[in-house]
Recover the amino acids of this structure.
């Protein structure tokens, strides 16, 4: 990346911020309240330390999953224990932070990624739309703005529309999530309901905020949601990742590969006993990934027939 490109990007980030109006304890209260007021406090817990609000969940939302996906990676959503650390004394950094993993978490406990599926973005990548890796434009997302990733974990890459519809306090003033740098995430409008003017959002999809100092937004167009972190994160390399499934014998699981041209009729079903099934068609043939809880905590019995594995029927126990 050239120095001129770096300077151009940094110039996009040059904003004047008001002094912060919220302290450590109030920030903890704001995180806690955002989840309770949304109605998710029965499934999502918040514990505050001296430095962070820890938002803990199983990353498995109670809304429609996987419907509308064509560009499937042949992964399915499986519950995954997740503890998201939200900084309680946020400060802005000087360079945006990118990550090939979650950048924050929604108030229902589901991790939030950037809009791409092509690996970690560079600073140069932030300056233009990554159309070939856009998860929305390539049909990889369901109608709720999410999908199952390489670790068979559900997460959002765009506006979490189904979650927002479930929120008891849904509206422009409602916080829909928190970035790991400690700043809140709002929807497509300003908290007072006014429209966000063209050019108001910076490269990370954020802007100054009178209360928190800074805030992120979702948007109808790319990058759709948080694209990078503007705040300083001292332990950035140690932010949590969902542990992938592994075979009961200790072997790993190879990630799925998107079937060329996409699939048809993908449906995901589940019942009260935890039996889950993703069924779809590819080039006239039927494929599926099915699983149910096994006798061991955190483990599941799988039966699969996937394009990735050449249509071979396979079974086994896999654990977090």
């Amino acid at each position: 990346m050239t120095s001129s490109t770096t300077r151009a990007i940094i110039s996009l980030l040059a904003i004047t911020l008001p002094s912060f109006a919220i302290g450590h304890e109030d920030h903890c209260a704001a995180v806690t309240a955002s989840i309770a007021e949304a109605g998710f406090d029965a499934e999502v817990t918040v514990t505050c330390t001296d430095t962070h609000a820890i938002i803990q969940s199983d990353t498995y939302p109670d809304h429609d999953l996987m419907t509308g996906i064509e560009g499937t990676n042949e992964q399915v959503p499986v519950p995954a224990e997740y503890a998201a650390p939200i900084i309680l004394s946020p400060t802005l950094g000087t360079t945006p932070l990118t990550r090939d993993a979650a950048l924050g978490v929604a108030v229902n406990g589901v991790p939030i990624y950037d809009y791409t599926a092509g690996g970690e973005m560079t600073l140069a990548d932030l300056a233009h739309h990554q159309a070939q890796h856009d998860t929305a434009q390539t049909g990889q997302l369901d109608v709720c703005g999410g999908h199952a990733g390489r670790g068979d974990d559900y997460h959002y890459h765009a506006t979490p529309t189904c979650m927002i519809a479930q929120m008891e306090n849904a509206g422009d003033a409602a916080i829909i999530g928190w970035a790991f740098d400690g700043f809140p995430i709002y929807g497509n409008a300003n908290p007072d309901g006014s429209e966000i003017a063209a050019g108001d959002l910076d490269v990370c999809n954020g802007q100054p905020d009178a209360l928190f100092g800074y805030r992120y937004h979702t948007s109808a167009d790319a990058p759709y949601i948080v694209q990078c972190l503007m705040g300083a994160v001292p332990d950035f390399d140690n932010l949590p990742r969902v542990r992938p499934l592994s075979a009961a014998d200790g072997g790993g699981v190879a990630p799925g590969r998107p079937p060329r041209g996409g699939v048809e009729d993908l449906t995901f079903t589940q019942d009260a006993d935890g039996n889950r099934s993703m069924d779809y068609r590819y080039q006239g043939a039927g494929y599926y990934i099915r699983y149910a809880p096994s006798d061991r905590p955190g483990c599941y019995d799988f039966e699969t027939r996937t394009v990735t594995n050449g249509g071979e029927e396979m079974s086994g126990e896999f654990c977090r």
